[in-house]
Write a structure and sequence with these properties.
Alpha-Beta Plaits; 4-stranded mixed sheet; 21 strands; 34% helix; globular
Length: 480
């Protein structure tokens, strides 16, 4: 049986939204699913191109969002030059509004290094039901988080992709709110920039949901230094939104002596949303590698490298001394049971938070990489009914779990205990049903395999085909 699927993002040249999408596509994410998902969004004013380019002699995938109106994404003279005329135009424009709208720095220049080859595919997105304004209004309109949430919710994305896209945007909005001293509801994403950020974030969520990794390891984020131009003027690198995301989500940063922005706010938000660890296994096999190209010209390799890894135990290493061939998944002996490294159990009693708060916290904990999280009804002192929140996590994720609990509940203390867990080896697979493929989890113990349908997959099939949930569930169980 295969080990857990580990996704590793190596950010030595930085990370951005488009680099992430390209790397995941090169790694094997379903391009058809991506295009269908993007086409379902009520969003126009752009087209996408997916091509092969070469960066530092390396073949890489490029994902490009081309707006109907240019926003200086890759204009190095604008981003790093002394173009006072352009800067003055933007500065004056901001104060023509009755209210000054906030924007994310990312939306004005998402990333990265220039293209080396012409594009070979265009995908148009121009839906009759879109609510976009004409080009004359692009600089006069803005979207807030509620508007963007409505766009994501209206698309035909899987529940997992929707949830991840909304989490990334929420992280981005919280960072901008902190930087500008506003509330999240007051933050606005300028329309031109909002388009490419919505596409990049939705695309990344679709690809990640399609690859469905069990664990996501992200290296330190390598950024440049100096200054860069945005709509509000000249700002330092790392840009404030990136430092806000890194601080809030405990991302590791490394600064290289390169004049330029290597880590964008969208890239940092994606990393914060999906990371479960920053440490590689001691021993592993590389199953597949993907390279995502950046678009700006900086003295770096200019790619985000993504890998699917398989962790090896001591017995695996001794049994596999030969060099694996391409595509070798390295199957482990069926029926093995793994005693995991030291884990932690966090607990806190909560008696004065609303049900909405508690539901939100549970979602946030699982999104952030908790191994398990649940509530147990308890009685506290003075016979007050309350909830015991329990979270199983790794030592590396403890601070993140505690941050989520303290920020979003009324608790003032969290207990921590060492915990052990024996877990069955598992792998994710698909089975073909009369309504299409369904995701399942396969676990083996002492030679017997157990198949557990994934809830999101069962729910999607039931809704799309108007079939009772239990009928879909029983059908999948009978297919094993």
């Amino acid at each position: 049986m295969e080990n857990r699927k580990i996704l590793y993002l190596e950010c030595n040249s930085g990370i951005s939204g488009d680099m992430t999408v390209a790397a995941l596509l090169d790694l094997g994410a379903d391009r058809g699913a991506l295009e269908a998902g993007l086409a379902s969004l009520p969003l126009s004013g752009y087209r996408t191109e997916i091509t092969t380019v070469f960066k530092s002699g390396l073949q890489a995938c490029d994902f490009n969002v081309i707006l109907d109106q240019d926003n200086h994404d890759h204009d190095m003279a604008y981003l790093h030059g002394d173009n006072a005329e352009v800067h003055e135009h933007h500065h004056d424009h901001e104060h023509d509004h009755e209210h000054e709208h906030e924007h994310t720095h990312e939306h004005l220049h998402p990333h990265d290094h220039e293209h080396d080859h012409p594009h070979d595919h265009d995908h148009e997105h121009d839906h009759a039901h879109d609510h976009e304004h004409s080009h004359d209004h692009h600089h006069h309109d803005a979207r807030n988080l509620q508007d963007i949430t409505a766009i994501i919710e209206a698309g035909a994305l899987t529940p997992g992709a929707k949830e991840l896209a909304l989490r990334i945007f929420r992280i981005l909005a919280e960072a901008e709110a902190y930087v500008h001293g506003k509330s999240v509801d007051e933050i606005h994403f300028h329309e031109v920039g909002a388009i490419d950020s919505i596409v990049d974030i939705a695309a990344a969520a679709i690809c990640l949901d399609n690859l469905h990794p069990d664990q996501v390891i992200i290296s330190k984020l390598t950024d440049g230094m100096g200054q860069i131009r945005c709509q509000h003027g000249i700002i330092p690198v790392p840009v404030p939104a990136v430092t806000a995301v890194a601080a809030a989500h405990h991302l590791e940063l490394s600064i290289r002596p390169i004049e330029g922005e290597l880590v964008t706010p969208t890239g940092a938000a994606i990393a914060a949303a999906i990371r479960t660890s920053s440490r590689l296994p001691e021993l592993f096999r590389i199953v597949k590698t993907g390279l995502g190209a950046g678009k700006r010209s900086y003295p770096t390799t200019g790619v985000l490298r993504a890998m699917i890894l398989e962790e090896l135990t001591g017995s695996d290493a001794s049994d596999n001394q030969s060099v694996p061939g391409p595509g070798d998944a390295g199957l482990r002996d069926a029926g093995s049971v793994g005693e995991e490294p030291q884990l932690l159990k966090l607990e806190t009693n909560i008696d004065d938070s609303t049900g909405e708060m508690l539901g939100f916290v549970l979602e946030e904990l699982m999104y952030a990489g908790a191994l398990d999280a649940y509530y147990t009804p308890v009685y506290m002192k003075k016979n007050r009914p309350a909830w015991l929140l329990s979270v199983l996590t790794t030592p590396a994720k403890r601070k993140e779990m505690e941050r989520i609990i303290f920020r979003n509940t009324t608790t003032i203390g969290i207990r921590c205990f060492p915990a052990g867990r024996t877990a069955l080896e598992r792998t994710h697979s698909q089975v073909n049903t009369p309504w299409g493929p369904a995701d399942v989890k396969c676990c083996t113990f002492e030679g017997e395999t157990f198949v557990y349908p994934e809830y999101d997959s069962v729910a999607r099939i039931a809704r799309e085909n108007q079939v009772p949930f239990k009928e879909v569930l029983n059908t999948i169980l009978n297919l094993r």
